[in-house]
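Retry 2 of 3 after timeout on previous attempt. Resubmitting structure tokens to design endpoint.
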């Protein structure tokens, strides 16, 4: 049995035409690190608020260990919560802040002292007990907030964009810290972010949210290597897209299958086709290829891949560990009415063809197994 189960959960805020959470079905396993990832307004915070008990569902059921938690107020749900703004009590010291959840639970003072010391040691802040929040850096304040969420040994820790106020270096340090805590404590963590690299760093599983619904729920590797739809392909990692049509009808498929598609200019390409429902011949489809799977040559004959698209090199940018190429696809790939699609390629420093200059004709090649069609 899952630790948490959302069954057909809806949340309509009064006065809003659309549901903030729209028929959510989600199981959270004990001990896992689950991230809710999605653009702003996609319902991540609302989902967390429903779980924590700060909001009530408009319909549906949320269960903890198989029992509905509808009637449980937040403080009886045994969940630690960390928000984006550190929300520490400014007039209290670090130790008093961390002690707070224990004091309200009427834990005896000697036990409180022991638990606060242990919680601060876990986040490496044992020497800061007497400071006030305004005497700490952003990262330290966020670690105090984490210690406060962990101190009463909750079964579930909920975090809503806890690192978004920190600069990049500190954010990455804190990500490793949170990973370590999850590993060491074995506590179930539900984490909200709009940052795909943060989600990939931290999570066992990621639920990709869009307009109050989950587009796909899978491990970071699965999301990246086998996205279920163009939204997921575009939200996780870089992605190139091209509108094409299907060559020959297809039945509904359980898993992706090799097949042929045609560009607007009539060029045939081979790719992996995902068809969750039957598709007619010439059905419009979207081709997706990640930039790192593109090979670039000035001469098509230099490419071993069966799929080759021609275009013009618009820009060539050195990004340290790789080159980023921007190319405009030519008429074979796009309809005359299309806005010229720009494709990006990521090329290792050693793999850049010699003599490549902006304005030149280039050929972009990719293997059928690296191209997804939806
Ligand atoms: N208290 C509220 N009252 C009315 N609408 C809200 C409220 N909170 C969120 N919403 C709306 O619900 C949708 C989901 O918001 P939210 O859960 O905060 O998304 P996210 O955390 O993914 O950015 C948005 O359209 C937002 O405007
Ligand atoms: Mg939010």
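Retry 2 succeeded. Sequence:
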């Amino acid at each position: 049995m899952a630790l948490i189960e959302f069954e057909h959960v809806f949340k309509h805020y009064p006065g809003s035409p659309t549901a903030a959470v729209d028929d959510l079905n989600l199981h959270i396993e004990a001990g896992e690190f689950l991230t809710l990832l999605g653009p702003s307004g996609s319902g991540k915070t609302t989902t967390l608020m429903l779980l924590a008990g700060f909001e009530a569902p408009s319909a549906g059921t949320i269960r903890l260990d198989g029992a509905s938690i509808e009637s449980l107020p937040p403080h009886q749900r045994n969940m630690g919560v960390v928000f984006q703004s550190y929300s520490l009590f400014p007039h209290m010291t670090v130790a008093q802040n961390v002690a707070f959840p224990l004091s309200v639970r009427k834990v005896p003072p000697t036990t409180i002292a022991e638990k606060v010391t242990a919680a601060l040691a876990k986040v490496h802040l044992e020497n800061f007990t007497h400071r006030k929040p305004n005497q700490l850096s952003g990262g330290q304040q966020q670690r105090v907030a984490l210690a406060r969420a962990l101190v009463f040994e909750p079964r579930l820790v909920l975090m809503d964009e806890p690192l978004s106020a920190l600069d990049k270096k500190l954010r990455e340090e804190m990500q490793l810290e949170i990973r370590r805590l999850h590993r060491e404590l074995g506590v179930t963590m539900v984490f909200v972010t709009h940052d795909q690299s943060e989600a990939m760093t931290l999570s066992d599983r990621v639920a990709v949210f869009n307009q109050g619904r989950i587009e796909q729920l899978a491990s970071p590797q699965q999301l990246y290597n086998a996205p279920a739809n163009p939204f997921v392909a575009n939200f996780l990692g870089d992605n190139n897209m091209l509108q094409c049509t299907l060559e020959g009808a297809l039945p509904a498929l359980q898993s992706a299958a090799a097949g042929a598609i045609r560009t607007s200019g009539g060029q045939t390409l081979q790719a992996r086709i995902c068809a969750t429902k039957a598709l007619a011949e010439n059905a419009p489809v979207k081709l997706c290829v990640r930039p790192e799977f593109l090979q670039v040559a000035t001469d098509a004959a230099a490419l071993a891949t069966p799929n080759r698209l021609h275009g013009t090199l618009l820009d060539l940018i050195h990004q340290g560990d790789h080159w980023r190429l921007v190319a405009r696809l030519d008429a074979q790939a796009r309809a005359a009415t299309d806005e010229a699609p720009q494709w990006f390629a990521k090329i290792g420093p050693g793999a850049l063809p010699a003599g490549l200059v902006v304005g030149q004709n280039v050929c972009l090649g990719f293997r059928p197994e690296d191209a997804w069609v939806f």
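Attempt log closed. The chain has a mean pLDDT of 92.
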